[in-house]
Amino acid sequence: MKRELNAERQRAQRYPEKRNERAGTRRKLGLTTPDLVLLSLVAERPMHGYQANLELERREIRDWANLSRPQVYYSLEKLARAGLIRPSETDEPATGPERSTFATTAKGRAALANALEQEEWTTQRDHSPFLTWVALSWQARPGVFEKQLERRREFLETETAREKETLDSILKEVGHPHHEAVWMVSLMIEQFETERKWLKRVGQEMKLRAPAKNPEYAGGEL
Fold it and tell me: Which of 16, 17, 33, 174 could form a Cys-Cys staple with 179, CB 3.0–4.6 A?
């Protein structure tokens, strides 16, 4: 294992320009997360914007990526201008008005692969509105803290049940548990269940809530 890590380190040191080239690809093309989602979807099979919207809704896109319906069409046009996708002929009939059907190009597949190698995917934290509320909750009126915790608990119960139904449908579709969609939804379920346990503990400790005993504040002169 050490030998493999040393070899990888030596390769990184010997060819730093390769890593920099990949890191710059996404920035150079200005690819956003919605762009990459669309690029990946069209890589599965050629489709037009209306089909892409339907498929993303079926996959419950808003649970795992911030992508609206208008962004789908904007991203398709942007990817086409950049040469990452191209109009494609297909025998599949369009649902609704005639629409341009797109397929990925070699340049597009390379750009997607390069973007997926970036470290930023694994080193960022979400800014949870609920965590922001927890930080500010000491200024809430009496009784609000308990009420909000109960609302959060009910929300998590509903979302957990919904994700479990989604997981069942995914397992039926893919036919095995070793699939990225299964892993992704399983992670969301475990995160919800962990937070539900945390909420229960906070509810039990609520009567012990108290301000900081040794508060410190940043100094500095205006």
Answer: 174
